[in-house]
Amino acid sequence: MNIRTRIKGFTLIEIMVSIGIFSLVMLVVMAAYITIIKLDKEARSTNELVSNLNFVVESISRNVRTGTTYSCAGAGNGTCSQLSFLDSQSQTVTYLLKNDGTIGQCTTGVCTSSTAISLTDPRITISALTFYVRGVGTGDYVEPQVLINIRGTLRAQQGRIVDFTIQTGATQRFIEI
After folding, report:
1. Which one of 2, 11, 101, 161 has the fewest CB atoms closer than 10 angstroms to its CB?
2. Where are the beta strands (DSSP E) in the chain?
3. Its pTM surpasses 0.85
4. What is the pLDDT of residues 95-145, one digit of tens each?
5. b or e along 18-37 (b: 16 or more beta carbons within 10 Å of the residue's beta carbon)?
6. Taking a C-beta distance cutoff of 8 angstroms, is the pair 117, 100 a contact?
7. At 76, which helix (H) or strand (E)?
8. Among candidates 40, 57, 39, which has minimal Cα distance to 167?
9. Biggest CA pair distance of the chain
10. Taking 70 as the threshold, does the pLDDT of residue 152 lie above it?
11. What is the dihedral sign for C-alpha 81, 85, 87, 91?
């Protein structure tokens, strides 16, 4: 009696076709993975800049809320490009837009673009910084209010530029009498 046994396995052509299909699938998956990594780096970079800008705006607002004796330098009528006031330690604080496009702060002496300390990241370019001051020295017991407008751009990774406009307000916590 003649018994034939079948040998089970894949032929060379089947193996080559399956390796080809696997390679195509991996190529598509790797391209998507690389794109996701690139987008994640860009999002992290933008988030870092937004966090820096948020910290600066909140710091200015906090100082304005606890300050007194506001003075506005610039356009007039309560609109200014430079805001000075006494902080909670009775130290003069001044905020202004520096020539390099960053927000500057001075705590001593005459404040100019060259003497101010930059608060914002150099990758953040501020094109306009405007303060609107209301209720200062009116004598009618109105709480002084400061509205801050900031316009500029963020330069994230890969040369991507994001335009932004921020507006926030701060009201003095106690009445100037």
Report:
1. 2
2. 68-73, 79-80, 82-86, 92-97, 103-106, 117-118, 124-134, 145-155, 161-171
3. no
4. 999 999 999 999 887 888 889 999 999 889 999 999 998 876 655 566 788
5. eeeeeeeeeeeeeeeeeeee
6. no
7. none
8. 57
9. 120
10. yes
11. positive
